[in-house]
Every structure is written in C-alpha cells, then in structure tokens.
Amino acid sequence: MAASLRPPAVAGSFYEGTGAALARQVEECFRSSRGPGDLPTRHRSPDRHVRAAVVPHAGYAYSGPIAALAYTAVAHERPPASVLVLGVDHYGAGHGPALSARAWQTPLGPTACDDQLVRALDHSPLEIDEGAQSREHSIEVQLPFLEYVLPKPRFVALQVPFDSFERLERVGRAVREAVQGRDVLLLASTDFSHYVPEETARRLDRLALDAIEARDARRLYETVVREEISMCGIAPTTVLLAATAAEPLAAHLLRWGHSGEATPMSEVVGYASVLFESAGALPPSVK
Fold first, then answer.
1. What is the pTM of this model?
2. DSSP readout, the chain?
C-alpha cells in the first residue's frame, strides 16, 4: 500500500486552508439555517442505521450546510468501522474506477486509509490509481466533515468516471461484494443541475431525486441521460444504488437546495442530501 499522504488539492478554495479556520467553517455549516441549525450532539445511539448517503461537494459556502444534514445523522449513531466515498472524475484523469490506497490530508489532519477494504476492492474493474485522484475535489471535501463527526475515521476513496449503465452496475457489484460483512458507510458525492435557472434545476433535480428515493439505479441513469440533467455524480450515485439494491433500506431526502440560496444568481447549481437507512440496527463487521 502507498505510504505517502495524498495532499489536499482544494484547501483554501473549496474550504478554508488552515485547521482553525476550517473547523470554524465546518461548524458554521452545521449551525446554518440552510442546514441542521445547530452542532451535532455528543450523545450517540449505540446502534447504527444509516447505511449510505448522497452528499454534495461544492464549496462549503454553497453546499456545506446541505451536506451537514447527512453528517448530523451520522454523528448521532454508532460510528461505522469504515467509510467508502464514491466520487466523480471531473477532470477525466482516470482510465476507469480508480482507488486510492493512502491516507488523505486536509488542514484538520490526515484521514486514515482502510487497507483491508482497499484489498477487498482492488479487483477488476477497479484498480489503484493515485494519479487519477490528484486534483479531484468531490471526495476530498467530504473528509473534514468525516473528521468532525467520527472519532478517528478510516476511509477509502473510489473515483468513478461516467460509463454505460452496464459497466457502472458491474462496479456496483464489485462494491457490494467488497463491503459484504463489513461495517461500512457508503457515500456518493454529487451535485445536481449545473448553471440553470432555479425552476429548471428544481424540476430536473426532482426527476433524479424521485429515482434515487425509489432506489432504482437504472431509472436514475436513464432519467439523467434522457433529460440531459447535468448531475456530475451520476456515476458514483448509480454505483451506490446498484451496490445496495438488495439491502432492505429506506431512502429519504433530507433537503434539496441550490447555490442561489447562498449568493443571488440567475443560474444555480442544485444540491441534495439523501439518507439510506435500515429499519433494524446494522451489524458490526464480521470480517
């Protein structure tokens, strides 16, 4: 496994560049009226029910409060043993689904890599490709939230480029097999409609969110393609839905919002947080 830390690519732009300022910014996201409205309580349930979540990845001023809604739910439960963050390939840097096998650094410190989960995932069509993720922000911006709500989190980064539904479904199967029997929280990092009028974003994103809440990977993929919805994380979200399709989970939207809520603008970017929860308590790892 790679020993070196993956340095931050967007510290000082998508989020604050020093530890103290970033900690304050994360807390501002939780306290925001567009988000939870307060910091997570320090009391945790002994059980865990949140299996997965869809979270946004724009600059914290825009999407941070909406992301904080999902992380508040995570903060209130027993911490998972590991987190798998499914991200976007915004730059076309990878040749396929790209894993990272190293810890990632942010101004809050390093987030450790789960080496055992990497080994379970490191099979075709997935492969370790550190260079593919060197500039990507969609996974990185989740880490300060994870560092804030989880004690000593371990995670794995998996960047998923856009592909055919069949190939994304294959990635989903690989993820499902790797996390089976493991106490893993799955996160799909995505923003929704990009730079369209608010009403257009609201209408199109509702179509995508209906498919997500129905937990229908093919319907989501086909809706986004047919309606030309500029949802950048269609690939990781499709993979998350495919990976968890057989699990008895209930999906529900915490909130949809847009960038115009933070700064007035005629064309907005849509954001949403969605939870996938088990009615019964999720078991700890058996592997």
1. 0.96
2. ---SPBPPSSBTTTB-SSHHHHHHHHHHHHHSTTTTSSPPPS---SS--EEEEEE--S-HHHHHHHHHHHHHHHHTSPPPSEEEEEEE-TT---SSSEE--S-EEETTEEEEE-HHHHHHH-STT-EE-TGGGSS--TTGGGHHHHHHHSSS-EEEEEEE----HHHHHHHHHHHHHHHTTS-EEEEEE---S-SB-HHHHHHHHHHHHHHHHTT-HHHHHHHHHHHT---TTHHHHHHHHHHTTTS-EEEEEEEEEEGGGTS--SSB-EEEEEEEEESSPPPPP--
Largest Cα span, the chain: 51
Handedness of CA 211, 100, 83, 26 (dihedral sign): negative
Q: Cα–Cα–Cα angle for 211, 34, 38, nearest 5°?
A: 115
User: What tokens appear for 263 in the block?
Assistant: 């700064």
Residue 213 in contact with residue 253, Cβ under 8 Å? yes
pLDDT per residue as tens, the chain (287 positions):
446 899 999 999 999 999 999 999 999 999 999 999 999 988 899 999 999 999 999 999 999 999 999 999 999 999 999 999 999 999 988 889 999 999 999 999 999 999 999 999 999 999 999 999 999 999 999 999 999 999 999 999 999 999 999 999 999 999 999 999 999 999 999 999 999 999 999 999 999 999 999 999 999 999 999 999 999 999 999 999 999 999 999 999 999 999 999 999 999 999 999 999 999 999 998 77
Q: Which residues have C-beta within 8 Å of that of residue 13, sequence separation ≥ 6?
A: 59
Residue 180: name the closest of 246, 231, 266 by CA.
246
Spell out the domains of the chain, with CATH numbers in brackets: 52-278 (3.40.830.10)
